[in-house]
Amino acid sequence: GMLYATNDGTIFISGGYFELGNIGDNNETPPWFINVYNDGYGSARVTGGTFSAYPVHYHGETGILKGYEAVENEDGTWSVVKERVAVIGNNYFTSLKEAVEAAEDGDVITVIKNHEIDNSDFEASCYYANSGHIAYIEILDKKVTIDFNGKTVTANPVLDGIMSSILYVGDTGSLVLKDSSEAQNGGLDVTMGEDT
Q1: Could you tell me the maximum CA-CA distance found in the chain, to the nearest angstrom?
Q2: How many angstroms separate the CA atoms of 66 and 142, rounded?
Q3: 3-state secondary structure the chain
């Protein structure tokens, strides 16, 4: 193995390259990058870095934090990056908001992973003074299609009495929502707070 944490120790990995060779067939356990004391006293927090193989943990977990994921590169290595939840063509995005902002007129955004919009994102969202309205995503002056692709985007926008929405379409903007999956079970799942 490569890295070991115990006695309340924590391993933080946010970048760098880590290469681990084959340790042989006689060992009962596979090669591992990270190991923590199995009573849970040690821990790992991985938010970046490139690994010569999938960044496996000795106990079968990776220590990759929520909101991040390991993706395989063309050369067979694996990189830990922010979780990708949507795609336009070959361009991946870490949030639906980011995808809509990058979209050009006529683009189709495909949701590729179930994910939740964190409430902290709403605090930095758009405010429309004329309507006293907060929206997480605004679509203005372009036509955008969101294909949920069988995936669900969930949110619980609790904003202390201010009206809030996931999507706002204004000016000459146009939004098409669809689900191209066979099951037709993708979409938005929004739970409004008592004060919204």
Answers
A1: 71
A2: 32
A3: CCEEECCCCEEEEEEEEECCCCCCCCCCCCCCCEEECCCCCCEEEEEEEEECCCCCECCCCCCECCCEEEEECCCCCEEEEECCCEEECCEEECCHHHHHHHCCCCCEEEECCCEEECHHHHHCCEEECCCCEEEEEEEECCEEEEECCCCEEEECCCCCCCEEEEEEEECCCEEEEECCCCCCCCEEEECCCCCC
Among 71, 26, 28, smallest CA distance to 48 is for 71
What order do you get walking across the sheet with 43-51 strand by strand? 10-18, 43-51, 78-82, 68-72
pLDDT at 75 over 90: yes
Asked if 121 and 97 touch (Cβ cutoff 8 Å), the reply is yes
pLDDT in tens, 24-66: 454 555 567 777 665 555 677 889 999 888 876 655 556 788 7
Q: 């290595």: which residue's tokens?
A: 77
Tell me the C-alpha distance between 104 and 144, whole Å.
Answer: 8
Residue whose tokens read 């890295």: 3
> Token pair of 16, please?
């760098």
Compute the C-alpha angle 128/117/143, nearest 5°: 55
Beta-carbon contacts of 30 under 8 Å, excluding residues fewer than 6 positions away, are 56
